[in-house]
Amino acid sequence: MDRTLATGSVSTAQLELLEEQVFRARQQYVSTPPRQMITVLLDHLVETEAMAAHRQCAAVQVRLSELTAMLATLVADALMKLGQLSRSQTWYDTARAAADDSGTPELRARVRVQAAMLPFYYGPLGEAVKLAGQARTILRGRPVRTTAFAAVAEARALAKLHDTHAAQAALRDALTVFEHSREEHLADTDAFGFPERRFRLYESGTLTALGRTSQARRVQEAALRLYPRTTGIDPALLRFEAALCLAHEGSFTEACELTAATFLGIVAEHRTLIVEERAREIVAALPPGAKFARSARELREILALAPGPA
Questions:
Q1: DSSP characters for 175-226?
Q2: Residue 264 C-beta-side C-alpha neighbours within 13 Å
């Protein structure tokens, strides 16, 4: 029995090396185009799967399940950006199964709130609220960044559903937790971190959906100052939020011009379906009369040239 318990084909050195490789991939993911990242992530998943296929001691198996959950989440996120929605959903399901197998509460919650992004952007919004709520339940109010992430993600989805009271309550909870939480690792350069700039992105989305445009604009400006020169699509998403605020305030020409400039300013490899959908949301927010203005026509022409789902 002692020999059985000690059996394992993975050494500590092998596991630590794999964890280092996955951590570098998490850092690389922040600014690397999704199509390029999928190849890197799948290579690490093949290696992780090979290790997990054989019996390992419990401590090693937990770490392998954690790595599987992280990698599967990033693959799912990349596929979502590329518009491969059904494949993205299956990878999110795998990530949740691996996170639950690890038994790590914060990872279980993080995978669920990350999975809420798929229904938030593509529907149904109720599923986004449900997943974010599950994440909050798992953490039971622990003062960590993932709790703040779950609360502000729930607030953003509720605001888009026009549930003003619940959205405001969730946003208050998120602000309270975020102000009292700390992250031990390099949050600014880690896809599994939740730095202030990302929190402000979700806060901006909540305020914009609630119609609190002046507050949303202040949050957007503060968030944009926190982003480094080289990063992913988050700054563009913030500028799309600013364009939505302009549309809500009746500045339709300015909203279309900002959307067009933002869309064209995104590096081609990052100009994926999720970006196109956010840009089209500004067009949808225009009243019927404004949709035939010159700036709106030019914006629709730009978006019509977009390649669509990969």
A1: HHHHHT---SS-GGG-TT---HHHHHHHHHHHHHHTT-HHHHHHHHHHHHHH
A2: 13
**Nearest-CA neighbor of 111 among 93, 87, 129?**
93
Looking up tokens 């990349």, which residue turns up?
78
Residues of the chain by 3-state class (helix, strand, coil), percent to 5: 80, 0, 20
Distance CA 157, CA 299 (A): 26
Cα 78 off chain centre by: 10
Domains in the chain, ordered, with CATH?
Answer: 11-103 (no CATH), 104-224 (1.25.40.10), 233-310 (no CATH)
Coil, strand or helix at 266: coil
- Count the Cβ atoms, other than its own, within 10 Å of residue 261: 13
pLDDT (tens digit, 9 = 90+) per residue, 255-308?
Answer: 999 999 999 999 999 999 999 999 999 999 999 989 889 999 999 999 998 766
Going through the chain in order, the beta strands assigned E by DSSP cover none
Beta-carbon contacts of residue 107 (< 8 Å; ≥ 6 apart): 66, 69, 70, 99
